[in-house]
Amino acid sequence: MEKAIIALAAALAVGIPAFATAYAQAKIGSAGAGTVAEKPETAGIIIILEAIPETMVILGFVVAIMLILQFA
Amino acid sequence: MIKLLGQLLKSSPENYGYLNATLRARSSSFLTMNDYVSISKGNLRDFEQFLLDSRYGISYREQLAVTRQALLGRIENAIANGTCLELLHIKELAKGEPLILLEVIFARADILNSRLILRALSTGTVSGPSPRWHSYGSLSGSFYNDLWEDSPSLVGIMERCHSKGHPFAVALADSLLDLQNGFDLRKAERTMLLGMLDQLWKTLSHLSTSNSQLVRNLLGMTIDTWNIGIWLRQRTGYPVSDRTDQLFIEKGLSFNPDRLSRSKAMADLVHGTLWRTALRGIEGQTPQDFQRALNIYMWKWQMKLFRSNPLGIEVAMGYMARQLVEWENLNLLSVGLAMNLPPKELIARLIPV
Lengths: 72, 353
What we know:
With 72 residues, chain A is mainly α. Chain A has helices spanning 2-38, 43-51, 54-71.
């Protein structure tokens, strides 16, 4: 039972940031596509901006790993 | 969780991101006051060279190929065509709510074109050379051009409008009927405006977002400028009838017909409204000065919107305003240069950007 709760907590730690990241990346992606279409020289900046929300999932993933290693 | 996600997605169903990012990227090509100043110091040939090197270059080269007009005519055509192409391009980029709202905002073109036809018909100048149509509205410039060039009579134009079937064309036909029945031009223009506004309110009635509210405000301001125009005519010696009060239009943003009828002075009329700042410092001038001040205020208000909300219709509204102001300013510069007006005088007449 305890293991199941830990697994659920780890899943939530990754899953919730993943949804948030997807939403943010969708918005940034469409705006970025519009900008790059007009100004191709901004492509580098747009890729960086697109990648920034990714950190949320990475942090969630780290938290999930810590949960599993610590308690499982 | 899934429900929450669904609500989150539903709350922003329209993609303003792509449209607005594109417009903001394109906005760097707008001319600045420094550009206007340097144009004003040259002559019409320098202006031609400037156009060739600018984003109007393609339109100007097209004019060189297809028309035999003089330099000034070519320049004016190129600026008009370039502007309309740019605005049509914006419409192509929009989808869903942004597109619906842009259709409403761009109805300005249909109002101006229809007004032009009405005024020409009432003064008997419809047989002259075609004007430069605002070809970014719901009805194409070629439709208005056909009305101008091929239609021999009021009845003929009305028939064409009815056969087109578009609500804006029907509104124009109704206003032409007023002219045929011997009514005043103002009454006919009011009929046209009411018909078009009716359609626009209907379009907006399906939307309840903050973006649609902003567009409602824009329509309200358009009605305000009409009402102030009628009010100014009443009080500045134009021939008016007892029924002039009936020319006011309801649903304005700041004025209702009752307030317009009661107000005796401009200061009373605009007191406590957003128009007060527009008219500060120009009291005692002519009605034309008032109307110009109102127009400039409206343009400035719209241009300011460009930077107010990156994920709303504000960007498109601001972009359209900047584009149309650029058209107006370039037109003024081209005519001014053709008349050899001094640079200072030219710059003073421009709409500040």
